[in-house]
UniProtKB/TrEMBL annotation:
It comes from Streptomyces kanamyceticus. The keyword Transmembrane does not apply. Keywords: Signal. It is found in: Cell envelope. Belongs to the bacterial solute-binding protein 2 family. The keyword Signal applies. This is Sugar ABC transporter substrate-binding protein. One of its GO terms (cellular component) is cell envelope. It comes from the Bacteria. Residues 54-311 form the Periplasmic binding protein domain. SUPFAM superfamilies: Periplasmic binding protein-like I. GO terms for molecular function: carbohydrate binding. Residues 1-24 form the signal peptide. Pfam families: Peripla_BP_4.
Length: 346
């Protein structure tokens, strides 16, 4: 996979890893369990505790979602009086990021949160941190070895496609010979294949629906506009569009407006603020978007803090945090868009 400085080098092949669910907004739960002989489970909460220095090595903010990852991590760290965040300058260059992580290891931070520019290339430095006794929270793009991290948290690419397909399926289930098209991302990325597979699997439950066209774009506004124009020219009649990415969706919407088309519904992906605003306005084809939430970076800070303090997660019986946390790909439409509006990225 290329490791250039565009988003394509940072969109992730780690799809739906099964695992525990992180419960946000943890509260104190240090009561004694009579059935376990009075053992106390220490869980992370908002009250100041043991001081923890978290090293954060994130991406270069050259895309809305990536910028939101960095912002979510930094804002979450500010929430805790007992957390010091050592943040590197974001980089999509693997050699530079390896050097940044090694600097954090040499500083002897308590925990590391790493969104690698290239999961395979940074595996060795993840192993180095773990061997040095510094637990690693691997954010979204997974390392090649599970020994390189203590916990993985990330998005569900297959689930994105599944949710999009189910939403469209329910909207079109009573329409005879319904036709849908797909504006995918980069086809050489595993995440794109997973999103398309989830979408196709969902549509299998709706025999009245046929996918009649698919075009791969480039996760940019320009590519979205160009590829959507091609789809519109080739397909004069369809009922729904699923677009994998809200940033390229900005361009897709431009093409749709230029073509004067309003005869289908559109579902986006990721959770951009512009998409939420369009859904709320409800005056165009965009009716929903499927989340790939950048809030996972905030949750990664929560997990890192819990690791540094030797605590578990409220709402779970285990004394330790889970090994895997897969974020749910929720559908945001006009019925719940107000709830998600604060999480939208620019």
């Amino acid at each position: 996979m290329p490791t250039n400085t565009s988003r394509r080098g940072l969109l992730f092949g780690a799809a739906a890893l099964s695992g525990g669910a992180l419960l946000a907004g943890c509260t104190s739960n240090e009561s004694k369990d009579e059935d376990t002989g009075g053992n106390e489970q220490q869980v992370a909460d908002d009250k100041p505790g043991k001081k923890v220095t978290i090293g954060f090595a994130g991406p270069q903010a050259d895309h809305g979602w990536l910028n939101a990852i960095n912002d979510n991590a930094k804002e979450r760290a500010k929430k805790y009086a007992d957390v010091t965040l050592e943040s590197t300058e974001g980089s999509n260059d693997t050699a530079a990021q390896i050097g940044q992580v090694e600097t954090l290891i040499n500083k002897k931070v308590d925990v590391l949160v790493i969104l690698p520019a290239d999961g395979k290339a940074l595996t060795q430095v993840g192993l180095k941190a773990m061997k040095a006794g510094i637990p690693v929270v691997n954010l979204d793009r997974v390392f090649a070895s599970p020994q390189a991290y203590r916990c993985w948290i990330g998005g569900d690419n297959y689930g994105m496609g599944l949710s999009a397909g189910q939403y469209i399926g329910e909207k079109l289930k009573d329409k005879k010979n319904a036709r849908v098209v797909e504006l995918a991302g980069l086809d050489n990325l595993e995440l794109t294949k997973q999103r398309s597979k989830g979408f196709d699997d969902a549509l299998k439950n709706y025999p009245n629906i046929k996918k009649v066209a698919r075009q791969a774009a480039d996760f940019t506004v320009e590519s979205g506009q160009q590829k959507m124009s091609q789809l519109l020219q080739a397909q004069k009649n369809f009922d729904a569009l699923w677009n994998h990415d809200d940033d390229q969706g900005v361009g897709a919407l431009r093409a749709i407006k230029q073509a004067g088309r309003d005869d289908f519904l559109m579902v986006g992906g990721a959770g951009a603020l512009s998409a939420f605003q369009a859904i709320k306005a409800d005056d165009g084809v965009l009716k929903a978007t499927v989340l790939y939430p950048p809030t996972m970076a905030a949750s990664a800070i929560d997990l890192a803090r819990a690791l540094g303090q030797g605590k578990g997660v409220s709402g779970m019986a285990e004394f330790e945090i889970p090994s895997f946390v897969t974020c749910y790909s929720a559908v945001v439409d006009k019925d719940n868009v107000e709830q998600y509006m604060p999480t939208g990225f620019k």
